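Everyone, study these two lines:
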Amino acid sequence: MFLPRPVTAFVLVFALAGAALLPPVPAQAVRQRLPGFSRRQAATSSTVEPRLLAAVDTRYCSKVLGLVDELVRKHFFEAKLAQSAWPAILARHRQAIVASSSLKQLSERLNAAIKELKSSHCQFVTINDETYYFLHTLFHCSCAPVPTRVTETFFRSHPRCKMDYTGAVTGGVGCNTRQVRYVLDGSPAQGAGVKVGDEILSIDGRPYTGQLSLDGCAGRSTRLSIARQGKTFAISLTPELKDDAGAYVEAIGKSVAVFDRPEGKIGYVHLWSGGSAAHEAFEEALSGKLQQTDALIVDFRDGYGGNFFDDLDFFYRPPAGYPSFSTISRLGKRDSSHLCYDKPLVSIINSGVRSGRELLAYSLKKTGRAVLVGENTAGAVLAGRLFPVDDRCSLYLAVARADVGSTCLEGVGVAPDVEVKLSASERGVHDTQLSEALRIAFERLSGKGQ
């Protein structure tokens, strides 16, 4: 079942609607700029090799830097900082940025400058980053408001809204750029046995440097060289060509599990991201298999934001006001639907919980509806907006401050009720945060918990 989401959800949490987009750059124009790629080749080639897509030169870096500079000055939510501190920051980094020789290097150096703004929802992303594909597909999928003519034109002409998807996401929040931070449920990576904490060394014999290392691998068996706990071995999987945001929605439904013990049944679901499609998938899981459980664990860890408070409606509705509803066919088959869940609730959080899912964690803790297990959330609660720069890169930029009541969670986050610290490498061996959540859930069922 789908519940309409308030317009404020998009403005407050993800703020992708109405973004001031730069005119899209045709793929042919991008190819014409690439080192080693002639105009004749650009006119006749439908694809570009990953090594060429990853290449940049001084002219290209200067142009991108100029566009990013202009966007920060005009749209960053702290105008004073954008006009005073940002020029000095850029002056310190300019030479290194312009001298970049690859998209990866350009991204690293630009983001080093952007990091000095000390604000969340600020990131320069390229087609070598998984985040790039998530933001672009989320922006154009059904969870965003009706696109404007400009955004429709951009996405119709944009050749890279889909990615070679494995479901193994590397880098960020305490992980090096090759280390797997999380694996999406039901993904090719999970099916092949890739674990959280693994380090991807190479793809088909070539060093792994980011998403472009998988470019063109969709639909064929691909060999990954993996380092795990001091050992190196190979894993084969077949990436899929699909939109990234849609993959996160699918992963919500595929994460559903039930732990059945004498004390009762504990349900589990991982809310990987937000948006209307994710909201619908979450409520479908709650009204289905999980409805028959005695307590529930909702995992917020990692993934993306885009959520809003109405994602928690199921947990706050009184059963008297939302009785079960059944239909009985002429053959006597009964189909029942449930629109609330009033049983014990435990939620797992970590430093990868950001943006809209921090709002959910805050609500659950403030009301006491759930016990929060894990680590402090990211403290990344600003309104961000996506600005495409060209066919290879975009700028995600904080454009407004976001308060929850009278509280500002930016830089603060939400603390757990029960702290359990866990690194990615440790989680790949034994998920002590999930184990503790299960212990508390079963304890509450036995009447020993609060």
Q: What stands out?
A: The chain has three domains: 7-157, 164-242, 244-381+404-446. The radius of gyration is 23 Å. The mean pLDDT is 85.
